[in-house]
Design a protein that fits this description.
Order of helices and strands: EEEEEEEEEEEEEEH
CATH architecture: Alpha-Beta Barrel
Shape: globular
Oligomer: single chain
Distance between the termini: 46 Å
Strand order of the largest sheet: 3-4-5-6-7-8-9-10-11-12-13-14
CATH class: Alpha Beta
Number of strands: 14
């Protein structure tokens, strides 16, 4: 059961290490810090049960927007933020089987001196972790997702080139890349490990916002639509 910590019997993801437990994907996890419903097998949405995602970024009337599709081009969710809001906030929603939008998570930014920090929440307002940028001489630039003050996930690579990895306890669980797309405002997210997909999607949106949209990185231009 992940890192071996004691968890509630209905927990689908460990609130300490983020790894998936032995529950089936139809069961619901409710812990002190996170709750997760894998809806892909229930017929309501595929967003949280799809391992390969394509995110398309658009700037609509000063609003930062992401369409989320599977590799077949089917739209399964979207993320919305305010391009001019300081600090930035985002809401990620899934498309249900009735074609309605349902929130799966939201992201709130904080400005702490010269550093940016974003907290990821589930739809009920429970914290999924805090994403922080770490700068050190030996490792360069990395992002760490922390939960309860402890490292949950580490993110490293070439952020402005959409080529970076996410790892938990040294094991890669997800990757952002551009292997399947050729349009410059698209990037891919692959999930290959036992990890809550919300922290992967949320982290990718935050990094895109900080490194690209806000111009903290270079080498990427967005199209206004």
């Amino acid at each position: 059961m992940g890192c071996g910590k004691e968890l509630p019997q209905d927990a689908a993801f460990c609130s300490f290490c983020g790894r998936q437990t032995n529950l089936t994907s139809q069961q619901v996890a409710t812990t002190e810090n996170t709750s997760f419903v894998s809806t892909g097998t229930t017929g309501t949405s595929a967003l949280l049960n799809t391992n390969d995602l394509v995110l398309t970024k658009k700037i609509l009337s000063l609003r930062e927007h992401y369409d989320i599709q599977d590799r077949n081009g089917m739209k399964i969710g979207e993320g919305d933020g305010n391009f001019v809001q300081v600090p930035a906030k985002f809401v990620v929603k899934e498309i249900t089987d009735t074609s309605t939008m349902k929130e799966v998570m939201h992201i709130d930014g904080k400005v702490l001196s010269l550093r940016h920090q974003f907290t990821l929440y589930d739809a009920s307002g429970n914290s999924l972790g805090e994403l922080k940028k770490k700068i050190a001489k030996l490792i360069g630039q990395e992002y760490w997702l922390e939960l309860n003050g402890k490292e949950l996930m580490r993110i490293y690579g070439k952020f402005t080139q959409h080529d970076y990895q996410m790892s938990i306890n040294g094991q890669q669980v997800a990757q952002v890349h551009r292997q399947w797309v050729s349009i410059n405002n698209q990037f891919d997210v692959s999930i290959m490990g036992n990890v809550d997909p919300r922290i992967v999607i949320g982290s990718a949106i935050v990094i895109e916002h900080l490194e690209i949209t806000q111009g903290q990185g270079s080498g990427f231009r967005i199209n206004s639509i």
